[in-house]
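Researcher: Please translate sequence to structure tokens.
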Amino acid sequence: MLGYYTRDFRTSNLDAAVDYLVLICLNVDLPGAAGKAQASLCHEALRELVLESREFAQLLGDIRGDGTRLKGTIEQRLRLIGLSNEEMFLKTVTVQAASVADDNGRTTDAVLLYHLAEDYDNVIAIVNRALSDSLAVDLSEPEPKLQPLKPRWTATNAIENPHENPNSSPQDQTSFSLTSVTDPATLARNMIQLYESKPLYYERVRALHRDTCGTLLLLSRTKSHIQSRNWSAALEAIAQTGLLPLSAHGSIPDIRAAAAN
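Model: Translation complete:
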């Protein structure tokens, strides 16, 4: 009943919708299977709300440009929904939402969610895939754009900006999220720079994915130079990748080494 009741205002007042759904857990302390059933029902309702609204930054949390984490509406109510620690919360809600977002091709959503779940290696793997797809587009065709992450919208925003529509475009609202971009190269650059500045993050990303990201960013820079007809800069960027033996000067071993890469 609570789930049906919140359908009328889920998009306009997410905080209130979460508060109503949390009420399902009022009897979570019942003995035996009854209490567990109440908690499971609440968690499922919250998962549906997260996936249906796509308001990941507001519901599950966000990240600032310096990597600082902002708690989401659901995480602020962990103890009320029968989850006593952050690890359980991430496993129960965030990772599942991240997997669905990735399967549906919502790259920025998946990047944010996997970052919040502390799966940093998967974050770089996803941005590498998005950047690789972008590089595969012919120079004569427009580059693909990512679907931007929905910005945070809270009750505070509504009070301070009563005439602003919470469903308006991301350009009309303010988001602290590092992933609220539409360019795959910018997203990849943002995330790898963040991880490089945080040793605890960086060491949890496999070297293969880190190196691939660096190479793809160089190729993206090369493509930009070619589009602007800056040939010398394009050759310099290509040389930095090591993919072509531009400085081999006819050396067979160097050419073979480049071919092996």
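Researcher: Any highlights?
Model: The longest strand covers residues 61-63.
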